[in-house]
What does this fold into?
Amino acid sequence: MPSALPGATPSLVLLNGRVLGESGPCEALAIAGNRIVALGCSSEIAALASPETEHVDLAGKTVTAGLIDGHAHLDREGLKSVLPSLADCRSIEDIVARIAEIARQKKPGEWIITMPIGIPPSYESVLAGIAEHRFPDRWDLDRAAPDNPVYIRSIWGYWRSTLPLVSIANSRALRLAGIDAATTPPAPSIEICRDAAGEPNGIFVETNKMPVVEMSLMRRAPHFSASERASALAASMKLYNRAGTTSVFEGHGIAAEVLDAYRQVRSEGRQTVRASMIFSPAWPSTSAEDCRALLKSWGHWLAGRGLGDAWLGMAGLYGEIDDSVERELRSAAFPQTGWAGFHYNSSLPRDALKTVLIEAARNGIRAVGILPNMLDLFAEVDNVTPLAGQGWVLGHVVSLTPDQVKRVADLGLAVTTHLTAYIYKRGSELVEKLGRERAGEIVPLRSLREAGVPISFGSDNAPLSLFHSIAHAVNRRDRTGAVISPEQALTREEALECATLGGAKLIFAEGERGSIATGKLADLAVLSADPLRCAPDALARIESLLTVVDGRIVHRADGGR
It folds into this structure.
């Protein structure tokens, strides 16, 4: 007999496949409402169906629990399609022609904002793809749109992980922004490029991975509107569903404008990815006492599991140490956040942040930090108020010494990892930086697992599929082909668990999500290949052929319904 809940008539059955159940593989499963109600062989599951039950023949395909992204930035993916693309432009004349085409659809004086120059998603070797091997300048863009202000945005620096960032404005845009020969850069990390006469040529170069120019010098250029954010968010969810992702944890914090987009998508019945969010505070000052008092006045709703439900919830807060001039410049654009989706003034000077985190710990409010310097700060907070049992999170783990791994375990922290950045993109760089004798400290997944630290994978939207993370955790190869500390590799089963049950534990939902078992929520993905059996090089290419969230099919690769 199948493992089943009594008295439930299935609304959907999946038959003739390989279902990676919590208690081992089986052939089929049944769903009633939003729950998995039976697991077993295909004939047993088919016998439970009624005439109204929808049947899906898996034809031998593998079914896994829906993937749970531990650091998603889900909203960004759809935003990449809001602005006109320059991806197919291979010369300055191509760029001029593309912008001229856009200008014909605009009224005189209306802004033209485009995506960056280069080929997405990572925008590598930008000028190598442009025939003239230079960026267009203000006068090139003036030829394209003499009657419109034009601004070509820079990338979000973590897409490529190398600097600099470049954005470009035409003459009308510069005039509207008040930028002329007398304008000085607002920070040492920004260069206003100039011609021989000292006039700005429209090109801005910055050594910041989080753009500053568009939030300061070019703040007059339009940002994403509320309707654009909502539409982009719904589109993002479909793309994450295609990758088999059914839930996300937004560990970098969510700004008000992104929360508003989630609420709108939810109210319109378009939400197809569950979202557990960390709050991104917009601190009005950097005074430790001001921030502590503000947290005491409104922070109680962030305690424990916070507010919301299994579809949309908010609990805990994000913190980061930063008192740089760039932080002040970005924060001045409040409430706009650009690509970030989080408030830049969530960052505080160290002493102020420590005061806030102590207050959070006293009130049962979990905190998330993603920079290495947060581990020492968490330990200092623990010395005042124990963190045990509160589920605080250290994200974007780059490298940890054995002593730091022990500290993470002793503090009861969970970790989220960004393997595309720190294994695939930067693996060899980090080996050179640390030395080969310390290579085992780079994203030490095996050490963390053996220490009992809960691990989840975060895509960081670079790229969005967690199957890249699974591949990097197993293969440990960087983009040069070098193997990075293979002793820290996980088995395929362990890596898949990090991407499913590990994410569920991160959001305190392991009783409801993260594995396939009777009684759990029906969040599932039917995969294009078996992650436990396919060739190693095929792991990162796995997609979902059919994704189910809350018992409802939200994605079919064939487009059918």
In short: The radius of gyration is 25 Å.
